[in-house]
Design brief:
Layout lengths: L1 H7 L3 H8 L16 H14 L5 H10 L6 H10 L14 E2 L5 E2 L9 E10 L5 E9 L4 E8 L4 H15 L4 E4 L2 E3 L1 H22 L1
Parallel strand pairs: 3-6
Antiparallel strand pairs: 1-2, 3-4, 4-5, 6-7
Helix pairs in contact: 3-4, 4-5, 6-7
């Protein structure tokens, strides 16, 4: 900036005022400490080793390792390197069994575990509508989306009945973290019985 100021014939005070800079910025020469690279490497190494630690706890570890460094310097390098503590993931719900044990069944093949849940929204006129979503947890395929102003238990049974006919009965059905295999089998047997009865009536 000095050569520009000299060409324009302006004083340092006027140029700094026009640029919104303090005059001390033209006098203080930025220097980098000799140990900056080593300190940065140690901070990155500790951040990789202790992924849940922030710069304050990293500062404490550096001091234990023999570094004479304050928190503000570590914070500056921390932000300069783009380091940050990852956000905590929410705990997934678990199914509690009668014996006190806890287990969440993992799908192992297609049609092993289906999940269904409701999503609610409003149209432009403010009226509510609901969506019933059913997915296969193994393939992550959305099997069906039923949309209506109101959805009741009988609607869930109707949708599941159609899916059972098209794809067969799954091993388990999960809803709001409640897993039930017996209900799926029983419902599948009821549908099969209804189909058999309907076929018998048509044959007669």
């Amino acid at each position: 900036m000095d050569h520009v100021r000299a060409e324009l014939g302006l004083s340092e005070r006027r140029v700094c005022r026009a640029l919104g800079q303090h005059r001390s910025t033209q006098r203080k020469i930025l220097t980098t400490p000799d140990d900056e690279a080593a300190l940065t490497a140690d901070i990155i190494a500790l951040a990789l080793q202790y992924g849940r630690y922030g710069y304050r706890r990293i500062t404490a570890l550096l001091r234990e390792a023999g570094w004479r460094v304050n928190r503000k310097r570590v914070e500056r390098i921390w932000r300069q390197e783009g380091l940050k503590v990852p956000q905590k993931q929410p705990k997934r719900g678990r199914l509690w069994l009668n014996d006190g044990s806890c287990i969440r069944l993992r799908p192992e093949y297609p049609n092993h575990v289906w999940s269904y849940d409701f999503v609610e929204d409003r149209t432009h006129d403010g009226r509510k509508f609901r969506m019933l979503n059913i997915i296969d947890e193994f393939t992550r395929e959305c099997l069906v989306i039923r949309v209506n102003r109101k959805l009741k238990a009988v609607d869930v049974i109707d949708v599941l009945s159609d899916l059972f006919i098209l794809r067969g009965v799954p091993g388990h059905i999960r809803s709001d973290n409640v897993l039930c295999g017996e209900a799926a089998a029983a419902l599948g047997q009821q549908i099969s019985a209804r189909r058999f009865a309907g076929s018998a009536l048509q044959s007669e």
